Amino acid sequence: MKYALFVGCLASVREISYEKASRKVLDELGIEPVTVEDFSCCSPVCLVHGMDYTTGLALTARNICLAEERKLKILTLCASCFETLSKTNSVLKKDPKLRSEVNEILAAANREFKGTTEVTHIIKALYEDVGLEKLKAVVKRPLNDLRVATFYGCHLVRPHDFVEFDDPESPTVLDNLVETLGAKTVYYDQKKGCCIGCGAFFGGVSEEIALELNHRLMKSLGDAKVDCLVTTCPFCFFRFDMGQLQIADKWGEHYDIPVLFYTQLLGLAMKLNPQDLGLSLHRVNTRSLLEKLNAV
């Protein structure tokens, strides 16, 4: 099984533990993540498309063209990239006039969007293409005593018309993936929050309000007495990981809740070396989690 791996901006620079763990886990599963050197930023819907819709679509579509030329499905790590690429792919397949306008722009770069490939997120690929049974079979260290909080965020499941994954109002896939590893998922009252809820994009409007929203969510996690938080997006990860340091500095509250990407949790269940999963690169120390799993 091969995919054109779309790492995105954050996972390749700021949250490199995500790329590190994902490549290691994919390799262990016998999946080849093909590196496409010409991939560029996904041109986020909320930013670039809002300034010039057609040109924004063309910038995003150029990445899809590169995967089409290689006859590969795109595999994203970032939920925001997943939403942007999925929306562009869907819109251009359904609208011939818009596709023609976008291809006029792409012609300057000797590209043409044909609509011959699909876009998936690593969580979607693990759930749909690999499957729970195979994941269960590779578990060498069952996470039986672990209390895990899951955070879906926005773009993994919304807008549903474009991403076509899980239930946008009551998603369950990430919980199922976590529980397949033996862990127990724990409900907390901020579980269905969005990117604004964790303060990611809203930080550009008001960092103070963003931190307060993040504070509210971390308090909810603290009350739930979880061992770790698992997310699927580098934006959300950054706000939870860095946010705990900011909360401690402003309010003197120390939650010390390790934040992990799902591929890191999967890697621990597969008994992979924590160093190979990039766990030492996190801002919130993961030692308490590793000690509980006897993985130090």
Structure description:
The chain is an alpha/beta fold and 296 residues long. The chain folds into 2 domains: 2-122, Glutathione S-transferase Yfyf (Class Pi), Chain A, domain 2 (Up-down Bundle); 139-292, 3-Layer(aba) Sandwich (Rossmann fold), CATH 3.40.50.11810. Helix content is 50%, strand content 10%. The strands form 2 sheets. The protein has a 4-stranded parallel β-sheet, with helices on both faces. Strands 6-5-7-8 form a 4-stranded parallel β-sheet, sandwiched between helices. Helix 13 links the parallel strand 7 and strand 8 (259-261). The mean pLDDT is 90.
Can you lay out the helices and strands and say which pair or pack?
Blueprint: E1 2-6, H1 10-13, H2 16-28, E2 32-35, H3 45-51, H4 53-69, E3 74-76, H5 79-94, H6 96-106, E4 119-121, H7 122-130, H8 132-137, E5 147-151, H9 160-163, H10 173-180, E6 184-185, H11 195-198, H12 207-224, E7 228-231, H13 234-251, E8 259-261, H14 262-269, H15 287-292
Parallel strand pairs: 1-2, 1-3, 3-4, 5-6, 5-7, 7-8
Helix pairs in contact: 2-14, 3-4, 4-5, 4-6, 5-6, 12-13
